Every structure is written in structure tokens, then in C-alpha cells.
Amino acid sequence: MLFAVKMDVHLPPDMDSDVKADILAREKAYSQEVQTSGEWPHIWRCVGQYSNLSIFDVDSNQRLHDILSQLPLFPYMHIDVTPLATHPSDIALLERNP
Ligand SMILES: O=C(O)C[C@H]1C=CC(=O)O1
């Protein structure tokens, strides 16, 4: 199951710099672990925003929720999830099913 996920990060401006550095390091390590597993095949920075647009390829809604809720930045994010379906005009679909 494919999902587009937009994550907007809102860290408190007065967050302690060591706490912030620790959360960001853990976030990077965890996100790269999930990316390596194949369940998070794309992550893009949204230009001009502290946000990313990601694609997840997971087995269930519950699995996506588990991944997202374990992100160290989860308490500081607004997350928008869009389930994806194939588009009938997608030429890649034609190539896969001529
Ligand atoms: O910087 C971000 O977009 C937030 C977050 C998502 C993955 C990651 O490594 O950081």
C-alpha cells in the first residue's frame, strides 16, 4: 500500500540545543533504518519549509501509523497522510500491463 505523507516540523523555539541535537540525530538514524527496509522509498525536502514529502510502501494502515508514531520528532510534527491508487493515465502502468 502506497501513501504520500507530508510532515511539517514545529520545534519549540526555546528547545534546549542538546535535546534538539539528540532528537534530530535519533530521527535521522530511525528514518534511515526505515528507508533501508524499503518501506520509505522516497523523502524530499519541501522547498522553503521545515517539511518533507515522503512516499511509504507498507502492508497496512497500522504499520504506517507504527512507523510514524515512533519517529522521535512525532510529538513536534503535523502529519498529513494521503493513500495512493494507480492513475489510469500513468504511462508506467501501460508499460507494466501492455
Ligand atoms: O527533517 C525532516 O523533514 C523531519 C524528519 C523526517 C525524516 C528525518 O530524518 O527528519
UniProtKB/TrEMBL annotation:
EC number: 5.3.3.4
UniProt keyword annotation of Isomerase present: yes
Muconolactone isomerase domain ranges (all copies): 1-90
Statement: the UniProt record of this protein carries the keyword Isomerase: yes
Key words, A-Z: Aromatic hydrocarbons catabolism, Isomerase
Catalytic activity line of the entry: (S)-muconolactone = (4,5-dihydro-5-oxofuran-2-yl)-acetate
Pathway(s) per entry: Aromatic compound metabolism; beta-ketoadipate pathway; 5-oxo-4,5-dihydro-2-furylacetate from catechol: step 3/3
Domain of life: Bacteria
Coiled-coil ranges per UniProt: none
Record Pfam families: MIase (PF02426)
GO biological process: beta-ketoadipate pathway
Molecular function GO labels: muconolactone delta-isomerase activity
Family, similarity comment: Belongs to the muconolactone Delta-isomerase family.
Subunit structure: Homodecamer.
Name of the protein in its database record: Muconolactone Delta-isomerase
